[in-house]
Amino acid sequence: MEWREKAAQCFQNLIEEAGANHCAVQAREQGTWIDAGWDVPGGWMAAKCVLEGLSGGRGQVSYTQRQMADGMQIPALELFLDDPVGTARAFQRDEQGIYGVRGEEGYVLGVTDRPLAEEKDWKGNVVSAGPNSLFTGIMEAAGLMAQCVQALEREGVSEILWGWSSCPLAAMTQDAEETRCRRLEMAKQHTAISLWVRGEGSAIRRAIESMDMEEFFVHELVTACTYGKR
Q1: What is the mean pLDDT of residues 84-95?
Q2: What stretches of the chain adopt beta strand conformation (E)?
Q3: What is the residue-averaged pLDDT of the chain?
Q4: Nearest Cα to 126, choosing from 48, 38, 26?
Q5: pTM for this structure?
């Protein structure tokens, strides 16, 4: 219940600050929908507000800069999570392509990169932004930690206690496919993720190998061993 309340509070905050955050609000019978990157720009603070809701307030969402190998400074998203498993649950999409925090009558905070025109059976409060938007780029960067958590869970590692990630945000272009390729490159080669767990070393190794990421590290607390590809 506490997680839902935090998610609902963040959605309400986004409604109240919609103008300042370059978002547009649409009130419908099924719930309230927010455009955060289709017909309006959306942006940094809208994504931060949503991520705080998806993590149930159990972490910190920050923007920083990363220095690349060529010396260039680019913006990056940093996450510090005290409940990475709960946050990973919030990133699991349903059959309609929506993910988020559910209530009894639909999402209290849902997110999708599908257009609002496809809202046929959506129920609850949903934030929508296009695949080539800054908002979606930030959400995809945050979702990388959720993918790593899910990889560990598939291998039977259940005690996943804390998480940290730093993901550079790729520059967007007018070409959505080019933007997608740039984001994939950042995820594979430049994103750093650390998770602190208790689990079997062999299971941790399998999880790491299953992820196409160069800087995914798992710190096992019983043996004090750190696992990674490097």
Answers
A1: 96
A2: 24-28, 31-35, 59-67, 73-81, 99-103, 106-112, 124-128, 159-168, 192-198, 215-220, 225-227
A3: 94
A4: 26
A5: 0.94
